[in-house]
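task queued by scheduler; priority normal; single chain, no ligands, no partner chains; default sampling; output format set to structure tokens
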Amino acid sequence: MNSPLESAVLELARTVTGVADLSAADSLSRRCGGPDALPRVCAAVRAVFAAGLTGELVRGADTVGELARAVERLREGAPRRPSLSAGLAQRRGDSVPASSGQSGIWLADQYAPSSTAYNGPFHVLFPEALDPEALREAVRRVVDRHEVLRTNLLLRDGVLTQVVSPEARFRYEVREFSSDDEPAAIASEVARTRVDLGADPVVTVVCATRAGGPRETAVVCNIHHAASDAASAGLFLTELMARYDEVVTGLPTADRGDRPQYADFARWHELRLAGPELPRLLDHWTDRLGGELPALDLPTDRPRPATRRFAGDVLPFTVPAPLVRELHALGAAEGVTLFMIAHAAYALLLSRYARQDEVAVGTPVSLRDPAEAEDVIGYLVNMVVLRHRLDDTATVRDLLRAVRDEAADAMRHKWAPFEKVIERVRPKRGGGYSPLIQTMLVLTPPGSTCFERGGRRLPIHRDVGHGAKYDLSLVLQPGDAGELAASFEYDTDLFDAGTVRGLGERLVHVLAEFARRPDAALGEVRLLSPREERALLARDDRVAERTPPRPTSELFEERVAKAPDAVAVEHEDRSLTYRELNEQANRLAHLLRERGTGVGDRVGLYLRRSVESVVALLGVLKSGAAYVPVDPSYPRDRVEDMLADAGVRLIITDSASASGLPATAQRLELDREDLSGLPADDPGRVKRPEDEVYVVHTSGSTGRPKGVVIRDETVANLVEVQDRVSPVGATGRTLQYMSLSFDVSVMEILGTLCAGGTLVLISEEVRKDLHALAEFLRRHDIARVYLPYVAVQGLAAIAADAGLRLEALREVASVGEQLVVSPQIRRFFAEHPDARLLNMYGPSETHLATWHEVGGDPASWPEAPAIGHGIAGLRLAVLDRRGAVVPPGVPGELHLGGPVLSPGYHRRPEETEQRFLPDPFHPGEVLYRTGDLVRRTRDGLEYLGRVDDQIKIRGYRIEPAEVEAAIDALDLVAASAVTAVDVAPGDRRLVAFVAGGPEDPREVARALTGVLPDHMVPAHVVRLERLPLTPSGKADRKALRGMFSLEDTRSDAPAEPPATPLEESVARQWAELLGGGAVGRHDDFFTLGGHSIMATELVYRLRREHDVDLPLRVMLENPTVAGMAARIAEIRDTGTTAAPRGLDLPAEVRLPEGFAVSGTPVADDEVTDVLLTGATGFLGAFLVRDLLRTTNLRVHCLVRAGDAERAWARLLDTARRYGIEEALDPARVVAVPGDLTRERLGLSEEDHDALAEAVGVVYHAAAHINFMLPYSSVKATNVDGTSRVVAFAAHRRVKRLHHMSTIAVFSPAEPEGVLTEESTPLAPEALGIGYTQSKWVAERIVSQAGNAGLPVTIYRIGRVSGDSATGACQPDDFLWRQVKSFIQLGAAPPGDTLTTDLLPVDYVARAVVALSRDPGAHDRTLHLFHPRGSDFDTVYQGIRACGHDVRVVAEDHWWELLERSAAAPGGNALAATVPLFREGALELGDNTYRNDLTATLLERLGLPFPDIEPGAVARMIRYFEGVGELAEAEVPEPVA
């Protein structure tokens, strides 16, 4: 019988040689094709077994048996290793130290406390009816046998410890199923159930028997990876069924106390690394992975979140059996395994997608080398990293050999714990990235995919989506039919299923390329087949769609003939009809031709925006010449360069501008010429399509402007396309905003005049003043504008600020630079529903190339919309650097072709040759290289930035648009631009330039922290009055870089200097790293420009200087000088490096400093004025209405705004949104501009005192409601703001405080079973989300103030729904999101599985106001939620009453539909809450809530709780339909 080692070598030899029946005694040279068989098998053995086989060791060997003995001799000669045996672990009572693998899993679990990524789900379908109780007993016996299966992980004295329960602890359920897909659904449910490693059982088993039909049982298991690995699943099942058979036959389980436990393995592993071994291994990995190891920067479907949530799913695909056979043959020829081939192909695929020549891929490897470890259940794996470098000139065979060597090297050093490697290598990663690697590849051993029982092989199903450990993980396992069953586990925060499906298809294609073309250079390996390439190219080829070209001047003359008396052009108080404009242009054309100017000549236009400039442009076209626009605002040197470069024959100008021209230039001054005597008739056709129409200059790589030549057929095609894309041009009024030197002016001028519309010119003064521009658009009824993004953003911000409505506006085209959809732009288009937003793209070399209408609800618009599809007359190709067509979703450089291309650059043959390349797909034609990086999406092309000038910081590619969108969303910001600045060699920093915004620019960086990954938060923010613009209206990024100085970011003296020698030491290290300058003890490291790499360096310096083990996490949580110094002192004094304590909510409950209640409260009959916070919120708006309706009080509304006018505008906007604006009485509502998050409510001391004297009662309804944000993000408003309101209520006059709380302050862990108005929430540690945590703290602060003498009434409010009359509601209302999701899915779970306690918002507001006026309700806590509630059958009736067909499906099926739609493009109304549901963060537990006291008070006031009836739901749906929240496009066909 073969030994385990000999069997393993034999299996490997069979794989390498392809001889399936090879035995251990067979001659390799005779059976396997000659003398080269032995070297190939030896190479594979070296790689797989990490064995240092030398020629000396294998000399004379010719069989597998002899080779195995050589390996054994090698191992025997190695240093003596400890043996693995039972009792090796050092147990202390019920505990043993955690293993290194468990430590890593536990740490990941701490970073993402709601994650299920490290669950280990699997299930098997047995063709027999198992006895559920016998199976329960069998599970008990297995768990009892293996300590690790009854273990929790806890910190004890700062050490992570395995705590073993003396009794078998596991979750066990018995269920039934009837359909074939139900076992997978049960497995998915189990997989998505959170396991608390400190308290919960790590084993879950569900015994599901089929109800009716064949006798089948599904056994669904989940063993957390802290207690298992892939091999453990098979071991568990084998032992489980052995114990089951013993139970049903009445046999006892033999005690095998001599078998080692997982804790023994952990100790054995620790001993194996003793002495110099671990440092040796770590030195190796530092050498392999140190230095610049770039993050895997795959293109994502969504921006990377600041912190990973580990949300994930699984997408299966198959590598077909015939291809697998070819790959085995390739492996045999090259001496590599299927695993190595897969690694090589995956590395190439990732390299192409990420556009990186170097990628790091993790691979879990088994540590079950000792025979004694073979049947140990536990986490006996470690992660190793293969660093792949891909060179286009290397062949596939070269790559396979490199991967073989890399894998062999990794296997030889596999024993170094991955967590120790990370700690040593100190990778440069931000919070949104997993450390060191972002992807892994797993090849599951053949034996672990099936389980044998009764002579039958039963598949073990593992592909259950339950979270993602990395961005992307590839799992391969051999199938029974020779195929590879593959799957991608992917992060659903980053990728859509369609994107991942494409990755799978491309991987299969790359594997096929490897198998069939092993001698091909890697640069020749394509991701698409020739047929797929042709299909993509054909889809983007629209050359045949263009109309036959005609001269542009004739298109204009057609419009003259159709409507000669229509107004063609307006400027200030002057206008010309089409007839008048044509006649003036004709006279000029005749003059030019008389002077010898015609086809082949170039005429300069040196004119400011005016009617004459339009006449001149048309006149030149009609003469046959081409025009060369030269902006009079350009520097004289540039003007001379442009004129000389273009070789102009004549310059048309006027006397006011002529002085800026060179003295030698031949000129024609229009205001000095009398054209009246010249012919006014059309000169006739003189131009051919291929003749020049203009030459426009752009920046050249030499620093001198280069002239782009455009032909007449390009402009004629543009005019035709524009007429179809933008029909408003034919009937509306188009603004002429752009300088003639910017080619978009052609779209404005000729796109309007060749369509029959009116062109409206503006002065340069109005153009530069966005306030004046906005008013100009309104006053002149402009219907269409072409604006660069910065102007679109500025216009939207001004219109929103001023409440300006542009009633005539129908179309806004964003041109010239990347469009970023900011909150102001969303609001602008929401308030202008008749206006379209077009994103237009086109380099000067083609003019317009693509366009995209940003459609649907502005609230759902992406931040960076697509640039769309190509126009008629053009062909598009997205190519990689090798000239290969890239698949959809993969970044590539955009190339443009077709007859409307520019012929090139005037007098620049070399540059023309570099940019205009031979078209490999259309011989004889050319493709223009745009230099723009794009990728194909479902909306067309997505612009990703420049290929040659991308911002890259610390190895990360950064899209400025994403950062700018986040900045533009901040209060008071008018516009922003982001660029990279090199402050020192190797020190490139991201700098944001902001127009407007907070007075302290550092507030911008603080606001972005937690919103963006740390590498995307600008290191410095420069506040400007306005952004500098290029003449074309774009943000001038080159000028911005010159406006930054590091010295300007430093202060001479900190606000509060370091207070101790230790703080001074920390501050000194800060200053050295950040570049000098004064550092205060409360300054924030990251706000001053620090980032994660600097943080790593800082920790290293502090450790060295103070001789303490300072964890990086400690620094991240204490990012001030004072905080770091205090933590260093604590570690130095206590010797513990345990992580800081978690959030202590009771410690957060603090009354304002110096709080005291002095005097008696204002009597009810003396109250004339009240203060209301939160008036721009949903409930707050209705509180305003009811206070005005039912009382005579004057209501002061604290509103976050810059001044009273803006505060009133916000109040009015909110009231309008809910249809209650008629209630706002300006005589009784006082808009108070302030801010809860600032001292004195954001008021001056004088205003604060005056308000405190005037007000007699305070209603506090303001809150930052967001279930996704952490406590720290909502604390400023919800906790600190409440504290300030409490202080205000006691200031000057003592005022009664009515505080709006929430029923959610009670956690699922409340000790009381029934919670009434008298109950106090006592278990805040179990509150799962930041919002409820903050409301708990706020309520306790209010209660303490009550205990101190302040009269307070607390209203714990349940779910608030739409207005009972109109249905008006907030779009984030949770019931509405549920209803909307049901409509979107066409399906809903059974009505009896859901309940609602909704109360209409108008009833809640009425109740609060009435109770606040009733002395019997004062100084109490009241519960405002529906005491009866209702199931969702009532909700479904309301949905159906509105014509929406919603079918009731099984709850599991509904969950499946919901999660599928949440991951799909467009998502689902409940998409954001799916993880919270799954992790139980929104659960209120099994608490019973009562509000008998409140109900009695309301009955007495004549306000009984209203019935919950279908009409209320129907009214809410109709309201949202009316405001466009439920567009028809969102509603699918009902599910089958």
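post-processing summary
- The chain has a mean pLDDT of 85.
- The longest strand covers residues 926-937.
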